[in-house]
Specification:
Length: about 160
């Protein structure tokens, strides 16, 4: 007995309409995830989000198959020097501009790892903008104690 299914393979495989795939309109430069100590369930991610279009891109949702929850956070500092993390519900990358995620400022929080991550591994992050356009980005797992060169806390990229 032979069963034939007349289902478009591309639609099944991607799950996203072609007009909702952002492709290279948004890229991450030097995207890294800091590997925490054994048993750590939360870690941070950094890099530069680069918008290659002439329109602002406002990101609302971040997901990964490796983590239960991803959120963008900013650091707020009080006059007495204490720091507090604040959730950023929408991260806007200006037209033809950048958003820098670095230590002491904006960063991605990766929470609830579903498995152990390995140094050098690339972790997929899928993000959606306010128009439900999807962007697929890769972040490399690094040991922060050995990778000072990945610190994006400098501000020469700010515009």
């Amino acid at each position: 007995m032979v069963f034939l299914f007349n289902t478009p393979v591309n639609a099944f495989m991607s799950g996203v309409k072609p007009d909702l795939d952002g492709g290279a309109a948004l890229v991450v430069i030097d995207g890294v995830i800091h590997k925490g100590p054994p048993g750590a369930n939360v870690t941070a991610g950094y890099g530069v989000f680069k918008n290659n279009t002439d329109k602002d891109i406002s990101l609302t949702t971040f997901r990964s198959p490796v983590y239960d929850n991803l959120e963008v956070h900013s650091m707020e500092y009080t006059s007495d020097g204490t720091a507090k993390m604040k959730n950023v519900p929408i991260l806007t990358i200006p037209a033809n501009g950048e958003a820098i995620l670095g230590k002491g400022g904006l960063h991605l929080m990766f929470m609830g790892n579903r498995r152990d991550i390995q140094l050098g591994e690339e972790i997929l992050v899928v993000t959606f903008d306010t128009d439900e356009v999807r962007y697929m980005l890769n972040f490399k797992v690094i040991d922060p104690r050995e990778s000072v060169k990945h610190d994006h806390s400098h501000d020469h990229h700010m515009h």
